[in-house]
Amino acid sequence: MSIAEAPSRTEMDESIRHITDHAERIMTWNYDRDRAQLVTLYNKAMASQWNSVTDLDWSIDVDPERLVTERPSGVQRIVAEATTIPGSPISSWGEKELTQAGIEFLKASLSQFMHGEQGAMMTAAKIVETVPWIDAKYYASTQTMDEARHTEVFAKYLHEKLGEAYPMNPFLDAQIMALLEDSRWDIAYLGMQIVIESLALAAFGDMLRRTEEPLLRKLLRYVMADEARHVAFGIISLGEYYEHLSEAELKERQEFMLDNTLRSRSRSTTPEVWERLGVDVEAVVPYLLEAAGNLELSPQASFQRGFFAKLVPNTRKLGLLDANDGYLRKKWGEAGLMEFEFADDTATDYEQYDAVAQDRAAADT
Ligand SMILES: [Fe+2]
Ligand SMILES: [Fe+2]
After folding, report:
1. Which residue among 27, 30, 39, 304 is the one 20 to 30 A from 161 at the CA level?
2. Residue 1 confidence (pLDDT)
3. Is the pTM here over 0.85, yes or no?
């Protein structure tokens, strides 16, 4: 690029964000490998690295219409139902418009995956700098690479197969920026490895169940293989750290979990999608709510279940349910979340998620 073509200052400012991190960076002179579980996890991470260029077949031709008509998502079903309600601003819609809307909703989801992955890359890099243990610094370095690959593959899938991405959703944006700015090193871990990674595993799993498209399927399986290790990394590290915190300090972490679950459940109006479809979002929302009621369907329901099925058991392992006389157990119990206490075990079953190792073993036989 010549100087004349260089982006102006304003163009550059529009495409970057300045973030001030309040956490201290830490170097350690203790190189002893005394955290056996982290050593195992780090070795596993090195063995299961995959290559975004050669392990995925980017020559696969993706038909976006087919992608969204095979197994419509909850949101697509609600939108279809909303076209049948008298007075609805989308009552003139037919198959063509519904398919187009399905494609836009899929692009919106994949765009949030992409932005979330960049947030994960930044958070993992922050952990490298702020965690006091050498084994954790090593592991977080492999995670930083994993998240770079995830950001890259979602960006590439969108760009090459589907079209223009959507901007970062304000809820996700606020959630990730708070982690990157926080002065406490463990909060970046708790927010990313436990909350957002559990959310991501549920969201990727949800999409994987709905798609037959081979490139997207393999991409999601490989990304999930990495994410399961990231959650395990959080549980192993924070489990140790939280054993030594006071009840008052644990209370702060319990409050953090409440803020990031019960208090931020309403996260998904997607005004940009409706804008691109040329529909007034204010006008369509009441019909979407009515449609969801007619179908007895919450667009978030299955995904929320998947999320809490991962989050609640993982939180139990950190000792956060029962500290302060079971403060979090009571609050989550009132919200009906304790049924998930023993639902899933990502701390030890990351082997089972390892699609990369499974594919390689199959290729060798
Ligand atoms: Fe990731
Ligand atoms: Fe991750």
Report:
1. 304
2. 45
3. yes
